[in-house]
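RECORD TYPE: inverse folding
INPUT: structure tokens
STRUCTURE:
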């Protein structure tokens, strides 16, 4: 009897309806439980409309943009929508003082004016296939994890070669469910991608880092590109003769907008989640690793901000660095808070207790899974100091700009030390360093770096014991009683790497003398100290521990699926194409506070502040905003909606993803998550997790009324 009751408890604890919005599903596997649920939630189309190999389907219009974002095709001439922050580096590269597209935006008035972007690609998934049986062929239970991985790598290579030969497409085998499943992905990579338009940062980055990761939000975070191909409609390198790609499918755009509780789904390339980790990993990330990293980044941001506040040039120089440092900083704060509020570690511990009981209830399970949780505990105990040491090395060591700049010279020194120096390779390295030197000094303010170095090194020494820090830190006040700031000042006074002319001189007529100059430089010696420390004290022990963790994680994943055999599992994100679905809705971030699900132009006007960079609006934008005649882009109350929140489960990489309504029409472009829900990479909470999308009607309004690019609107398929 007792056992029966216990059984019930297990099921009640683990069976949750799929309905809550959690999950990043594989598009080819939607038919079945997912499709049923999606239709119950309001979807009017079928799984076959979303992913099909027999006819054109929506998957033909969703692409991986560069390596870390998503974009969608919105016209039969392959016009692409993605985020402003995804296209930002292209917008920036085309910008100069005369043509400042960051500040003023950019709009091509015809195809000829669309700007090529060497190196930028978009990747389209052609087909997906379960190849688990082939990938695991010859893999035995007796194999070590390393042998298993090697065998799978060999099998995967053979699978890809055959697939390429058969299809003519690029092919890749990727692991899912912690190496329990393997899928073959056929892909097409397009290499001629041109910039068509971008709003000014006052629109595309409105709210900046102040509003980043937060709701309510008023950012018009979009930019417009186009795919070009050869005359045969196949991917080709850039050529002036290339023509716009004719896609199999493009998304129609709805002008109807969304209302609370409307069904939506997000189709895109989420990069990484870790939903199936044990409690030890969650505790390590949110209670140990994040807090140090947050402190270290916070110190850098404070110093950046102190200098930026009084110096406009520095503000521009550090804008992009600040955005990068701050994006991760804010995300980690939100993630740790979110897990704490959810009692995430305790929740995982309860699941583990249940798991142990389930394992012990059956002899064969005991043989397979007994001791798993305990093994996690001991392995994570060994892993923890190494993980933290790695965090310090990257956040504090390489957080010093001059250190990370000089680390780029390592490859040159390594190559020059070879018995047979490859002259072309050397030449390439030297050229590369010349251009890196130029861009480094363009945005380098030495007083900031001195202060950052002093702060980071002090924190490093105070928080990492002698055995877990690189040797250079242990020499600082060994002999003399110098302070850390004395040490740093001496270092910066002595190194030649803070002097642009001196660095450039190193890179012409490269010879032995110059090699010696580099290797004897005190900053280069710091780089070497970090490198040795990393190789010997971190990577070497990590190799075995990391493999054990992979093995434990793989077995635990398999065990969880066996234990909850009635539950539908989704694999962790791995930059492959996924579907998340949920409902439009607000949420309550704190006691007595409720956030509505959409924002309007009124909020932009409210936030406007000529004193605060993130909230500045110029006259042109204001005059358009104040017209109040939003034509077909207004909502039913005549208002201009800017962004909306919904419960789709998204993560980094989903930026730029199409947000689609029940009919599969485009209603928004995903660009962020709310702060209270950023722990969804580790644990999803339906009450708090919301993705943030720019309302596509605002995107069209900006293109049409602000940019006057009506010809682009004409290309699109609008549903009134
Ligand atoms: N938080 C979003 C993401 O993770 C947007 C980042 C870009 N925006 C910014 N203000 N830094 O990518
Ligand atoms: N801004 C993120 C990106 O660039 C998406 C937001 C998220 O992490 O959910 O992919």
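DESIGNED SEQUENCE:
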């Amino acid at each position: 009897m007792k056992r029966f009751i216990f059984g019930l408890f297990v099921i009640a604890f683990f069976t949750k309806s799929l309905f809550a919005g959690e999950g990043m599903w594989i598009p080819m596997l939607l038919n079945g439980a997912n499709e049923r649920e999606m239709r119950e939630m309001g979807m009017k189309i079928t799984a076959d409309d979303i992913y099909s190999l027999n006819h054109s389907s929506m998957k033909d219009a969703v692409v991986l943009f560069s390596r870390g974002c998503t974009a969608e095709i919105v016209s039969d001439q392959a016009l692409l929508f993605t985020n402003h922050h995804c296209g930002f580096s292209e917008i920036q590269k085309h910008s100069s003082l005369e043509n400042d597209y960051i500040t003023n935006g950019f709009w091509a008035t015809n195809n000829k004016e669309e700007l090529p972007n060497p190196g930028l690609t978009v990747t389209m998934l052609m087909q997906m296939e379960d190849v688990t049986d082939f990938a695991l062929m010859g893999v035995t239970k007796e194999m070590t994890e390393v042998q298993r991985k090697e065998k799978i790598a060999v099998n995967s290579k053979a699978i890809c070669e055959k697939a390429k030969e058969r299809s003519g497409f690029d092919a890749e085998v990727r692991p899912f469910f912690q190496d329990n499943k393997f899928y073959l992905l056929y892909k097409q990579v397009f290499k001629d991608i041109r910039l068509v338009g971008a709003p000014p940062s006052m629109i595309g980055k409105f709210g900046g880092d102040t509003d980043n990761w937060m709701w309510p939000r008023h950012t018009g975070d979009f930019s417009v590109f186009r795919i070009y191909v050869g005359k045969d409609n196949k991917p080709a390198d850039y050529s002036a003769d290339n023509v716009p790609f004719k896609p199999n499918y493009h998304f129609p755009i709805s002008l109807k907008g969304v209302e609370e509780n409307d069904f939506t789904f997000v189709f895109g390339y989420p990069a990484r989640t870790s939903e199936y980790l044990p409690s030890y990993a969650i505790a390590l990330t949110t209670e140990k690793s994040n807090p140090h990293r947050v402190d270290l980044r916070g110190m850098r941001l404070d110093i950046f901000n102190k200098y930026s506040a009084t110096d406009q040039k520095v503000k521009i120089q550090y804008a992009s660095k600040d955005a990068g440092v701050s994006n991760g900083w804010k995300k980690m704060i939100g993630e740790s808070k979110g897990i704490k509020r959810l009692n995430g570690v305790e929740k995982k511990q309860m699941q583990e207790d249940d798991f142990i009981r389930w394992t012990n209830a059956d002899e064969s399970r005991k043989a397979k899974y007994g001791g798993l949780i305990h093994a996690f505990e001991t392995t994570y105990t060994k892993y923890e100091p190494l993980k933290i040491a790695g965090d310090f090395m990257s956040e504090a060591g390489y957080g010093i700009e001059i250190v990370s700049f000089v680390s780029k010279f390592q490859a040159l020194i390594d190559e020059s030390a070879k018995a047979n120096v490859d002259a072309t390779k050397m030449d390439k390295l030297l050229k590369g360093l010349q251009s890196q030197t130029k861009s480094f000094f363009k945005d380098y303010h030495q007083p900031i770096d001195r202060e950052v170095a002093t702060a980071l090194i002090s924190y490093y020494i105070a928080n990492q014991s002698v055995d877990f820090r690189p040797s250079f830190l242990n020499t600082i006040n060994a002999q003399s009683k110098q302070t850390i700031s004395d040490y740093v000042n001496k270092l910066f006074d002595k190194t030649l790497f803070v002097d642009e002319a001196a660095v450039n001189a190193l890179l012409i007529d490269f010879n032995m003398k110059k090699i010696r100059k580099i290797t004897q430089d005190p900053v280069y010696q710091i780089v070497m100290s970090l490198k040795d420390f990393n190789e010997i004290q971190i990577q070497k022990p990590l190799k075995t521990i990391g493999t054990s963790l992979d093995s434990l994680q793989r077995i635990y994943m398999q065990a969880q699926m066996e234990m909850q055999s009635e539950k539908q599992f989704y694999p962790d994100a791995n930059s492959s194409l996924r579907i998340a679905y949920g409902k439009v809705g607000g949420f309550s971030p704190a006691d007595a506070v409720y956030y509505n699900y959409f924002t309007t132009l009124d909020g932009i006007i409210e936030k406007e502040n000529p004193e605060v960079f993130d909230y500045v609006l110029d006259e042109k934008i204001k005059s358009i905003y104040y017209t109040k005649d939003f034509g077909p882009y207004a909502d039913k109350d005549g208002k201009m909606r800017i962004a909306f929140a919904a419960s789709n489960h998204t993560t980094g990489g989903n930026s730029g993803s199409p947000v689609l309504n029940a009919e599969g029409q485009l209603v928004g472009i995903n660009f962020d998550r709310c702060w209270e829900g950023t722990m969804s990479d580790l644990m999803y909470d339906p009450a708090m997790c919301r993705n943030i999308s720019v309302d596509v009607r605002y995107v069209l309004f900006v293109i049409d009324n602000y940019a006057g690019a009506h010809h682009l609107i004409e290309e699109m398929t609008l549903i009134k």
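NOTES: Residues 650-655, 671-673 surround glutamic acid (ligand 2) (CB under 6 Å).
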